[in-house]
Design brief:
Largest sheet: 2 strands, antiparallel
Shape: elongated
Distance between the termini: 35 Å
Strand order of the largest sheet: 1-2
Structural class: mainly alpha
Order of helices and strands: HHEEHHHHHHHH
Length: 257
């Protein structure tokens, strides 16, 4: 690839990734804060209409009144705003950037012969498999261990992230190892939105349109995954930014860091 074109793509993808990530993380943090700040509605008619809690806020020169329903209002609101494109844009731009920097120049940035004597195609294949495997293992754990105990899921998940960090450190160049783990966790977050959270919302909307009582099960799972995403944000940001700090990725036991 032409070096100038590559630099231009690097800048454009990086800007898009950062801006979309700010929007996604900001929305995630805001809605978790909103949930934690909800208070029982003061008006009886709101409670009777199914409002579980309300939140008053001041921002940008105005007052805002947010309400959360236990399941759904009696009628479909219009327009209904979906929070999904921030997640999709963040993942697509981030993975494209990962490909541009670490797969296209795998011999320079992904492979380190002193770590593992891999061919470029082998390193790329292992990276892709690791990203896919991260989501599969996490999703299976959520549907098994997570159904019984979120605390147990936390301990098992944290242990497996450590295993993934150690494994990446045995296969890839030090900086690439951190990015690999970050991409794995970021993929889990984006897949949560695409495959769990948004489908649950679609079921809710479909039930409302058909005049049925919505099934609370998928919505509760969507809420769990949303909270997972909120907590995963911090390690994802750390792994993405660690490449700027040699004392982090260059530590003797960088995987433990």
């Amino acid at each position: 690839m032409d070096p100038y074109l590559k630099d231009v793509l690097d800048v454009l993808l990086r800007m898009l990734h950062v801006i979309a990530g700010i929007a996604w993380i900001g929305a995630s943090f805001y809605f978790v804060r909103l949930d934690l700040s909800l208070r029982a509605p003061k008006r009886h008619e709101d409670a009777d209409a199914g409002v579980a809690g309300e939140f008053w806020g001041v921002h940008g020169g105005g007052l805002y009144h947010s309400q959360k329903y236990r399941l759904a209002p009696a009628e479909m609101p219009e327009p209904l705003h979906w929070f999904k494109w921030e997640a999709y844009t963040t993942w697509l731009s981030g993975f494209a950037l990962f490909v541009l920097l670490y797969y296209v120049d795998a011999d320079l940035r992904l492979v380190d012969p002193t770590v593992a004597d891999l061919e470029q195609w082998q390193a790329i294949a292992l990276s892709v498999v690791g990203v896919a495997l991260g989501w599969i293992v996490y999703d299976v754990l959520c549907r098994t261990v997570g159904q019984r105990s979120q605390k147990a899921l936390t301990f098992v998940g944290t242990g497996l992230v450590a295993v993934a960090a150690w494994g990446a450190g045995q296969l890839f160049a030090p900086r690439a190892a951190y990015l690999q783990v970050g991409v794995m966790l970021g993929t889990v977050m984006a897949a949560n939105v695409l495959l769990v959270i948004i489908p649950a919302h679609r079921k809710l909307v479909a039930a409302m349109e058909e005049g049925r009582e919505p099934d609370a099960g998928p919505l509760l799972e969507a809420k769990n995954r949303s909270v997972h995403n909120n907590y995963l944000t911090l390690p994802v940001l750390f792994t993405m930014l660690a490449g700027h700090f040699a004392f982090v990725f260059g530590a003797d036991h960088a995987w433990a860091v």
